[in-house]
Amino acid sequence: MDVSQIRGIKNRLHHYLQEFAPCFGRKDTRAHLKTYVSGQLSALERKSVEPIALEAGMPARTLQEFLSQHCWDHERMRDELQALVVRDHSGPHSIGLIDETSYVKKGDKTPGVQRQWCGAVGKKENCLVSVHLGYSQVDFHCLLDADLFLPQSWSENRERCREAGIPEEVVYRPKTAIALELYDRARANGVEFDWLTFDEGYGGKPPFLRQLDARQQAFVGEVPANFYAWAKRPCVTERPYRRRGTRGVPRKTPRLVAGSPKPQTVASMVDHHPALRRQDWQAYRVKDGQKGPMVWEVKHAMIYPPNEAGLPDQVYHLLVARSVLAPDEVKYFISNAGAETSVEVLLLVAFSRWRIERCFQDDKGQLGMDHYEGRRWLGWQRHLVISAVSFLFLARVHQALREKKSRPDPVPSPYRRFGGGADVVVERLSSHSGVRENGAQASMAAKAQCPGSEEPYQNHPTKITPTRYSINPNQTMPMALT
């Protein structure tokens, strides 16, 4: 960017932060918001409180107190952020993204820290975890809300909680319960989600899925290989039953009829469910990665997971997807979408989860979300909210700069409904031996047929969902205010 663009961004930031002025009762307190956001957007190598304060020429303690002690409404700031998303970025094909991220920390004073699974390093580590709700709409994505996960070991030690400033009403909640609270808050603020997607850590919890069903929220979520369901709906009876010659209360109803098969894991269905076993693997180009098009082979069937009473209730789509280049990598997705929903649409939603991973990568790599070193609960909550505010500004500027770039007039085609590129696509490839036997060559051929990751693979007849995104999943959003 040139000097004029940087000056323009500074002016844009000033007007953007005015949207959050109602969250502050004092002008001097409000001024600290600009200091903190500017620090996160700057080129500082370390973006914790002290370097940001020193860069701004203020005592570090002042900025620390702004986060953990000063009186201002961070919950209203979150609501204002969501209102901005509704006002400026809502539209069709919106996807809600549920995921968590972790922060490696030393010591035992940071609220919620303990030795637990840490996705940041891929093993158990001393860390804390936050659950997030993201938002995606065509070529735009951002973070909407977040909350810290409080482990049971912390929740049961209220003295330790008080030392970290954790309110008495804050207790242990499963991550799925936190995710539902984030979702409900966003919906109450007017955010609409055509779809919701999440990984197997959430999809593997049937009560969470039932809660989404109760909210009539369409989803496509990953589930673990040991997720249980019936491949064929078993018969349920309402008829009372008592063994002849016995007394007592008859068996409860409704119930499965005698001799009904037990539910099986989705992994075993691939080999034993006739509809899946006899089904050929169908190749789909799902999206373009750094090494070219990513091709997955997919099988599809309808399944019937047991409800809380152990009976078949909701019918779900099951997608079994294995990577062509790494056949041992198999993913299982389920969806409560209508039976008429195409596999292409389900895959597009399922593989859109990269967007929240990109949010975490940019929020940590560009904004220093994981640099915060505070030891107070309120400070951490406010840091997460402000990081989302900074990220939304970054996403808006990035989108505006991208739209200003010159580009050739879009050529009308069945693959371009919204204009723009085609970096996230779901394209069905006709079955041929080359895809399976030599996935690398197939991907290279597909890449040769789509210069600049813009054009779909054309060597074979295709069927593709009209929804196409134009943001490159491998493109970061660099920007520094100097």
Structure notes:
The chain is of the alpha+beta class. It has 2 domains: 3-217 and 356-402, no CATH class; 219-242 and 250-351, no CATH class. The chain has 17 helices and 16 strands. The chain has helices at 3-18, 27-41, 49-56, 60-68, 74-89, 152-155, 158-163, 175-188, 200-203, 206-214, 266-272, 274-277, 343-350, 354-365, 377-404, 433-437, 439-448, and strands spanning 94-104, 114-118, 123-137, 140-148, 195-198, 219-223, 228-229, 236-237, 255-256, 264-265, 282-289, 292-303, 316-323, 330-335, 424-429, 462-464. The strands form 3 sheets. Strands 1, 2, 3, 4, 5, 6, 11, 12, 13, 14, 15 and 16 form a 12-stranded mixed β-sheet that branches. A two-stranded antiparallel ribbon has the order 7-10. β3 and β4 form a beta hairpin. The longest helix has 28 residues, at 377-404. The protein is globular, with a radius of gyration of 25 Å. The chain starts with a helix and ends in an 18-residue tail after the last strand. The model is unreliable at 406-422 and 437-474 (pLDDT under 50).
